[in-house]
Each structure stands twice: as C-alpha cells, then as structure tokens.
UniProtKB/TrEMBL annotation:
Keywords recorded for this protein, A-Z: Amino-acid transport, Cell membrane, Membrane, Symport, Transmembrane, Transmembrane helix, Transport
Annotated Pfam families: Aa_trans
Origin species: Handroanthus impetiginosus
Segments passing through the bilayer: 34-57, 63-84, 185-209, 278-298, 318-338, 380-397, 403-421, 442-463
Annotated GO MF terms: symporter activity
Name listed for the protein in its UniProt record: Amino acid transporter
GO biological process terms held by the UniProt record: amino acid transport
Length: 476
C-alpha cells in the first residue's frame, strides 16, 4: 500500500532543482502568505474570549473598558512586530531561521531563559487545548438544550451532560491531529476564522436588535456599582479579572514564530508577518469593540460571562444554535493552531534523540482514492494519546477554564511582553538608560503589574470554584 521513506534521509530526487523545491534551510518550500498568516492569527486571537468582553467592559465601565481594549491592542501589535524581527538569527538579512519561540530565545538571550520560555509557552498551549475542549462541549450542549426547550417548552428541565460532547470533540481532534504540521493547516484556520466572524457578528446583531428594541439596560462610566450590583470586594476582584480577560484575549505570541515559519520568502518573512499582525490585531479590535461595547449597551451592568447566553435558549433558537455551532467549529481549528507547536516539539525532540528508530522516523505514503497521504506511526500514537489526555483532563476538572486564566496570567507577561522587548534590546543593541531603553522597560514593568493583578483575580475566582468542585459533575 504505497511506499515508505525515512525522514532523516530525505533528499532531492534526481534532476530536481533545489531552489524550486527547498528553502535556504533545506526544508520543503514554504507556501504561507499574508492571507494564511492573518487567518492563523485571527483563529488564535479572536477565540471564544470575545464572548466574555461585554462582561469585562461591564466591570470597568464606558471610561476604562474601551481604553483598556485599545491599550492592549496597541501593546500586542507592537510586541508582535518586535518578535517578528527575531525570527532570523542576528546577522545578515538571510541569517539562520528559528523554528520555534524557544529557538528564538536561545539565539538572542540564551541561558535559563530558554527553559523559562519553554515552560511558559508549552504550559500555556496545553492549558488552552484543555480549555477549548471544555468550551466546545459547552457550546454543543447549548445547541442540545436550545432544541430541548423548543420541543418541550421553556419550563422543561433539559439537563444535559457535557461528557459525551467532550468525547465527540476529542474524536474529531484525533482525526484533525493527523494533519502533519502547521504548513498544511491553512485551510482549517481559514474555516475557523470565518466561523469566528460568524458568531461574533450574530452576537453583535442580536445586541443591536436588543438595544433597538427598547432595552434600557443600566450602564455607567465606571461599570458595576458598589452597593447596587456588587460588593466593594467583588468590584475589585472583578475589575482585576476583567483587565486580565482583555489582556489575554489578544495574546497569540505563543504561536507567532510557528506561524511565521510557514511564510514563503521573498518578501522577507518579518515584513509579511508584521502586515499579518496588523490585519489580525486590527480586525480583532474592531470585533472586540463592537461585541464588547454593544454587548454592554444591551445588557448593562448585568452582562453575562458569555453574552450569547444572555439572549436565552429560546428565540430565535435557530440563530443561537447556529452561533454555538460556529463556536464549536471555530474551536476545532483553534485547538489545532495551539496543539501543532506541542506536536512538533515532541516529534522533533524524539527524531533527534532516536534518529535510527523506524517507528519514529519512517513515513508511510498511502494512496487513497487517488490522493497521497503521509502517515507516521509515532505521530499517530502520540497525537492520539495527547488528545485523549486533554479530553480526560477536561472531564475531571470542569472548572479548568478558570484555571486557564491563571495560566494566561503566568504566560502573558514573559511571552507577549518580556521576551520580545528583551530580544529587541539585545538585537538592536539599545544603549542602557537611553530614552528607548527606559520607555521599553516602563512598558515591560507596567505589563508585569497587569499580569500580577490578573493572577490575583484568577486565584480568587479559582478558590471560589474549587469549593464547589465535584469530579465528573459537569452538567448543563
């Protein structure tokens, strides 16, 4: 059934032109473009975090909410341009490529910071994949409940377990995980990006309809009111969590270098990546402002954590169903965007550690219905195991989404701010105590404070959830 070849002995076929088939590093020619990179970014950034932005703005109010959104859009775009410049090693324009975030840090900073980067990046990626399994199952359950209410009436109990849907999500991910690498993920990211636009637009449209229909929700310049909506302590904790939610809703630095490594050259990868970052962040900001601000106008200080659920499970039930299906499909693609760097890291490590092991290195080419598929037994076993483990974690710890806030707080500062700034200072040889050095450091320290504040808010929310924790008790 087809043919076999060894990854470690791949070479050029006789008569093949190296310049046409391979890049300057000997790897197969990259084919990524501004469109595919922008799709990857939008898929990674918009995420289901857009659904909580109405709640976040409700905690901060009209004055601080939009201002914080704009501030983090600028910070994210700025630091992403610094990180994009670090893709090539210091030196000539065509310096050696860095394939992962850890490689970038190793080239520019070195030392223990490489291990710190790996811990922050891969810890965050594992956390996101578990969190997405939970979130996707919640959206699937929402569809089932909506149909139940529509069929049996609004007073029906309609209690539905999340676990079968986590299993369905995992089964689909086992299949999608056999996509060999980031370079072949473009079509899935484009589908996922379209889905994110769809459910964001539905939420925005329903919010506009609610406001136009005469809904007079109470909104204020400072958000939730102490003594009316929340206690003084809750106001502080919720404001901390809201700032953290907004900061992490923009972060995609965990996968930026891996996305950049898919781009064809010329033009220079950093130039295209900066444009893609601008497209991704500006598009995201428009959607965030529309959904967050109009959602706050629709629901006021009582805005729910997921603003799509604020419209109820009832009518228009088919539109809410469609939005939740879009969320689930989007998360299918987003899971892969965040999982591929983990898959690649483990597979590259193992192939370097055991280059003679045929189970790890041999690729089997299968011809099915006229199409050629490359299958590797180690990839099949390892990726399937990973998906099953993330699904089990999601089932055992249904409050993991709150824990994800803590992981986000811990990884946001080093990955999105600290390393890009430090590598820029090292690469550009910015003089110590110069104006540029000072303002870069002030930006870095300010974001550190935001991360610490968000971490405190997440810990408080997590402590509250753990008190009510019942393993395998996740029913909607």
């Amino acid at each position: 059934m087809g043919m076999e070849y060894n990854k470690t002995t791949e070479g050029l076929e006789i008569g093949q032109n190296p310049s046409k088939s391979f890049d300057d590093d000997g790897r197969p020619k990259r084919t990524g473009t501004l469109l595919t990179a922008s799709a990857h970014i939008i898929t990674a950034v918009i995420g289901s975090g857009v659904l909580s932005l109405a709640w976040a703005i409700a905690q901060l109010g009209w004055a601080a909410g939009p201002a914080v959104l704009m501030a983090f859009s600028f910070i994210t775009y700025f630091t992403s341009t610094l990180l994009a410049d670090s893709y090539r090693c210091p030196g000539p324009i065509h310096g050696r490529r860095n394939y992962t975030y850890m490689d970038v840090v190793r080239s520019h900073l070195g030392g223990f910071k490489v291990q710190l980067c790996g811990l922050a990046q891969y810890g965050n990626l594992v956390g996101v994949t578990i969190g997405y399994t939970i979130t996707a199952s919640i959206s699937m359950v929402a569809v089932k409940r909506s149909n139940c209410f529509h069929t049996h009436g609004h007073d029906a109990e309609c209690k539905i377990s999340n676990y079968p849907f986590m299993g369905i999500f995992a089964e689909i991910q086992i299949i999608l995980s056999q996509i060999p690498n980031f370079h072949e993920l473009s079509w899935l990211s484009i589908v996922a990006a379209v889905m994110s636009f769809a459910y964001s637009s539905i939420g925005f449209g329903l919010s506009v309809a609610k406001v136009a229909g005469g809904a007079h929700a109470r909104t204020t310049l400072t958000g939730t009111t102490v003594g009316v909506d929340v206690s003084a302590a809750d106001k502080v904790w919720r404001s901390f969590q809201a700032i953290g939610d907004i900061a992490f809703a923009y972060a995609y630095s965990t996968v930026l270098i891996e996305i950049q490594d898919t781009l064809k050259s010329p033009p220079p990868e950093s130039k295209v990546m900066k444009k893609a970052s601008f497209v991704g962040v500006s598009t995201t900001t428009v959607f965030y402002m529309l959904c967050g601000c109009v959602g706050y106008a629709a629901f006021g200080n009582k805005a729910p954590g997921n603003f799509l659920t604020g419209f109820g499970f009832y009518e228009p039930f088919w539109l809410i169903d469609f939005a939740n299906v879009c969320i689930a499909v989007h998360l299918l693609g987003a899971y892969q965007v965040f999982a591929q760097p983990i898959f690649g890291f483990v597979e590259n490590y193992c192939s370097q550690k055991w280059p003679q092991n045929k189970f790890i290195t041999t690729e089997h080419t299968l011809n099915i219905l006229g199409y050629s598929y490359s299958m590797n037994m180690f990839r099949l076993v390892w990726r399937t195991t990973y998906v099953i483990l993330t699904a089990l974690m999601a089932m055992i710890f249904p409050f993991f989404n709150d824990f994800l806030g803590l992981i986000g707080a811990a990884s946001f500062y080093p990955l999105t701010v600290y390393f890009p700034i430090e590598m820029h200072i090292a690469q550009a040889k910015v003089p110590k105590y110069s104006f540029n050095w000072m303002w870069l450091k002030i930006l870095s320290w300010s974001c550190l404070i935001v991360s610490l504040i968000a971490a405190v808010g997440s810990i408080q929310g997590l402590a509250h959830d753990v008190k009510k924790f019942k393993p395998f008790g996740s029913n909607s």
